[in-house]
Design a protein that fits this description.
about 10% strand; four-stranded antiparallel beta sheet; five-stranded mixed beta sheet; about 55% helix; about 375 residues
Length: about 375
């Protein structure tokens, strides 16, 4: 192994290198923290996809505008591009659940006036379901959600399950997705106060824009996607998370620089010799960068292994049996880790590289 290689220094200075690697290893826990934040969104992913495909339209509050709403309803019903399901104006709540971060989350629900309406919607969502036992006042939920509440098919869901539930329903089917959503079948009366609108060809903003264009100046409330509401509610988490990363990274950068400085001060003569035999300042900077980058790579690999093992164990032993899940990967975790790692490693490389490039053997 060549003395000028990065691994040569690490191999010859194992104890010192391990200290630096451990300090850099701490940045990988930012990735784990990001995974915890993403776990809150994880169980909303399926519902976000469903709400993109189903747009809820509410009747206006004032009675004088109701005729306009019914005219709009009949127009939508006769539109070959749309699937329109009338329902009552009553909303029905989902069950709250305690997320991996330890606080209680609200959940969403979808209401259908009949089993046929539910089946029609599930076909649009791509949900496979056994409709054999589903009837009026049935509830359908994911197996994961049922596990979280300790529920099984045939159980009654009412205020004894959670005080937020109004009415009495039966859990008549379990679906294989990971959403924390309650799907109700609740028969309506002849009055129409709310519409479920879907399309085989449109979803998301395209579907909502199409409905808004059809509505024109008439009065009705087109509900926005749940995705937008969730992002608004959790936007502060992003600010807190990334602000915390910057503060922690600055502190960690100072600590890492202090540890590395103590080691590199002892190597000033070594780098002075390099300069004396003709190694350029650029070469010195490159050597420092390669050493620190190599230790950083080892720290990242070690950290990744620790995080994977930790995530696997806590999922299998704690979260999955409770109907929860900690993702192995998240974009917010990756971005947070990269930000932290850059804030720690880059200043360290620059300060040490420039410092060692000034070493002069004639001073000794």
């Amino acid at each position: 192994m060549r003395p000028f290689s990065a691994m040569y220094y690490i191999k010859e200075n194992k104890r010192k290198s391990i200290i630096i690697i451990f300090m850099l290893f701490l940045t990988t826990f930012i990735f784990l923290a990001g995974n915890y934040i993403d776990s809150v969104y994880y169980f909303w992913n399926s519902y976000n996809e469903y709400s993109d495909k189903l747009c809820v339209v509410d009747a206006p509050a004032s009675a004088e505008d109701y005729n306009d709403f019914m005219e709009f309803y009949n127009e939508l019903k006769n539109d070959d591009k749309l699937i329109v399901q009338p329902r009552t104006g009553w909303g029905h709540r989902g069950l709250p659940w305690k997320c991996t971060m330890g606080f209680e989350m609200g959940t969403a629900s979808m209401v259908f006036s009949s089993v046929d309406d539910m089946k029609q919607a599930f076909d649009q969502f791509g949900i496979e379901c056994d409709y054999t036992d589903i009837k009026d006042y049935s509830v359908v939920m994911s197996e994961t959600f049922a596990k979280h509440y300790g529920l099984k098919k045939g159980d009654v869901i009412d205020s004894s399950t959670d005080k937020i539930i109004e009415g009495r329903y039966t859990l008549d089917a379990l679906i294989d997705d990971e959403s924390f959503v309650l799907f109700y079948v609740i028969p309506g009366d002849d009055a129409v106060y709310r519409l479920n609108v879907m399309s085989p060809d449109m979803s998301g903003n395209e579907l909502r824009d199409y409905i808004a264009d059809s509505l024109g100046d008439r009065k009705a409330q087109i509900n926005e996607p749940m995705r937008n509401e969730i992002e608004r509610q959790f936007e502060p988490f992003f600010y807190i998370f990334f602000s915390g990363i910057i503060i922690l990274s600055i502190v960690l950068s100072i600590v890492v620089n202090s540890v590395i400085t103590g080691q590199y001060i002892r190597r000033v003569y070594e780098f002075g010799v390099y300069r004396a035999i003709g190694i350029t300042k650029k070469g010195i900077l490159k050597k420092c960068a390669s050493e620190i980058s190599m230790m950083n790579l080892l720290a990242v690999l070690f950290g990744a292994a620790v995080i994977v093992i930790f995530t696997f164990l806590i999922n299998e032993l704690y979260y999955i049996p409770d109907g929860k899940y900690l993702p192995y990967f998240s974009k917010i975790g990756l971005y947070g880790f990269l930000l932290s790692n850059i804030l720690v490693v880059i200043p360290t490389i620059i300060s040490k590289g420039r410092g060692m490039a000034k070493a002069d053997v004639t001073e000794f």
